[in-house]
Amino acid sequence: MIEIDKISKTYDGVTAVDEVSMVVDTATITVIVGTSGSGKTTLLRMINRLVEPSSGEVRINGEATHTVAKTSLRRRIGYAIQGHGLFPHYTVARNIGTVPTLLDWSQEKIDTRVDELLDLFSMQPDKFRDRYPAELSGGQQQRVGVARALASRPDLLLMDEPFGALDPIIRAHAQKDLRHIQRTLGSTIMLVTHDMEEAIQLGDRVAVMDAGRLVQYGTPAEIIQQPATEFVAKMAGGVERPLRLLSLYPVSDIIEEGTAEGEPLDANTCLRDALSICLWSGRDVLPVVNEGVPAGRVTLAAIRARAEGPT
Amino acid sequence: MKSVRAAELRLSLPGLLLAALGFLALLAPFMTLAANRIVAGEGLTAWHLAGPDVTLPGLIAIVSGLILGLFAAWPKARLIGATLGLAGIVWLLSQSASPLLEGAGEYARVSPGLGFWCLLAVLMLVMADAITSLSPGPRTRIALLASMLGLLAIVLGTGLLSDLSIMQEYASRKDAFHAAALRHLTLAFGSLASATAIGIPLGILCYHGPRLRKIALPVLSFLQTIPSLAMFGIMIPLLGWVANSYPAAKAMGIAGVGFAPAFLALLLYSLLPVVANMVAGLQSTPEKARDAARGMGMTTWQLLMRVELPLGLPVILAGLRIALVQNIGLAVIAGLIGGGGFGTFVFQGLNQTATDLILLGALPTVALALTAAILMDVLVELTNPTPRKAS
């Protein structure tokens, strides 16, 4: 558990982060979202003390971060940034092994860990271990960057716009991979983005920052349905809100008894995609299958009901 | 088919220019014959040097070398042409010296003339251009350099050129020459080593402290702008005063003239390239990589040793290269204040108006500077930490 307790940062009298408090649960993804200049990156960098807080403190599993030496604190916290920040003169294996090397792991243990992580990120170790960052595609570089941040099994993984430099298709892939890997490893992740769509897709909890303040901290559904301020409502997408809300739930949530005609839908499909299929194929009812077995149906009316905001 | 052949026969533009200059140079006096080592000599064109058994093979080699240097598509032909041409001018030089001296008097001297020097320059440029188009790897470049130096050593060692005036100047002061060579190398490399020992830590401090950087770099730039003669001049009273005030310094051999002021002046000149490139090299690490390194818990020292230094090494070595080549050249001025080195011959020659004695100091300096530049370039390339992008 990460506790951020009334943390502030002032630069020459200008407040970048203003008394932010929040609690992050273990094994969840928390996304900090805001416009540029909102203080989101400063907040993240205060957690591993790349920026020293002016006041307040951060506790990781009960231990205050300012009681630990900066370097040993950072070696316990994974760090991945936009544009990956890989060392151009290190091979993929050496890049991933950076923190384990700093922690004096044996070479054998490091090699095993590197191969394990490359496998996890679907990059064949034999093929990629000895390549240099310049020989990788953008998506591969980004995966190596995240693998490097996870190498020493950190208590916490901090990510600053990790997908910012990727094109939309690779970006969607990377987000899905991150979700999958976080569930597999049970990692605790704090991620900064300016993209609310990304926040809603990835976050178990979303923290919205505006002008150095934390204006709302809640589940994606709360952010969309009960925005705390005008700003949050605007960030949450205005007219796109119903669609974003639908993207949060799977079809299995509103499945009902019965059958329907046409191409069936998997129960894990999100409601936004189900709505899209209804509109495109001109159907009001879609059959649903769960792992190939007919499981019932879903109606356009039921989908609509889930998209309604508070009245 | 036709177009391929046309492309192959396309002439290289620098080749055309160089060949034109080469042919013009052939019209200039190739060698000069003088009554003694001081007076100006009489110029002789290449075909007047000796009998056709000597001049014909030489001229054919030079002309065909210049023609081979024309083909844009065949850098190897250009390289062979340059080598052939160089062999031609060395042949003419070595074969015609002793016939010319015959009956010309006891103190007569033969020297290479304007035509020779121009042809040498033209053929070296053809060679450099051909080597650039071949873009050889570091090993090939070292091998090429070694074979050039080897050939030079053979030509000089076998006494082929011993009738030339410059070689006679050498023969009469062999020991002084070797001492000067050693002193020149000590001045150039010693001051570079000291500049490196001071400049690398100073560069690291400047990199971390913008305030120090704002003071140190302008001061070093200012030192660089002091004309070398003035700099050596300033050293004389300065070190003279030190030697007079501190007997210990005097005992160490520090004096207003001689080795110490020359060494110190060269050291001061080398500091700017060393420190400035040190700072630039360290700054060349991508900001993202630096941020990631800090975020992963590297200490400042680890960041320096593992990331910033290896990534900056080519730029840092390029600074040492500039300093070394500059030192080799500037060390000539040391001759003026009794610092020794090849400059001794240059200034002696100037005083005696003996051109060949000047050359005895100048030519080894040029050769040394060229060799150092090529070696350092190879070193810079070998230390490039990031492999070329795979296609």
TrEMBL record, chain A:
Transmembrane feature ranges: none
Gene3D superfamilies: P-loop containing nucleotide triphosphate hydrolases (3.40.50.300)
Gene Ontology biological process terms, A to Z: quaternary ammonium group transport
Highest taxon listed in the record's lineage: Bacteria
Database matches in Pfam families: ABC_tran
Domain ABC transporter: 2-236
GO molecular function: ATP binding; ATP hydrolysis activity
Keywords for the protein's UniProt record, in alphabetical order: ATP-binding, Nucleotide-binding, Transport
Keyword Protease applies: no
InterPro entries named among the record's database cross-references: AAA+_ATPase, ABC_transporter-like_ATP-bd, ABC_transporter-like_CS, P-loop_NTPase
Keyword Mitochondrion attributed: no
Family: Belongs to the ABC transporter superfamily.
Name the record gives this protein: ABC transporter ATP-binding protein
